[in-house]
Design brief:
five-stranded antiparallel β-sheet, 70 residues
């Protein structure tokens, strides 16, 4: 059985981490499990990355986007 990591709809690259946005929560969770890590520097240095609902948002087009930090 072959599994692939979901491709994000779009990304937001920051200095200490990045955010990948998906159109399904399942894809966001799968990406988080496939890309474990920690924030690298700043206030949150060492905090684990992963599925983060605080970054979720609804776009101007009415589409809900689900966030995963990595």
């Amino acid at each position: 059985m072959t599994t692939t990591t979901p491709k994000p709809h779009h990304r937001d690259i920051r200095i200490c981490f990045a955010i990948a946005y998906f159109t399904t929560e399942d894809d966001a969770g799968a990406f988080a499990r496939a890309t474990p890590g920690t924030y690298n520097g700043g206030y949150s240095h060492g905090m684990p990355t992963g599925r983060d609902r605080s970054w979720d948002y609804t776009g101007d087009d009415g589409v809900q986007y689900f966030a995963t930090t990595y």
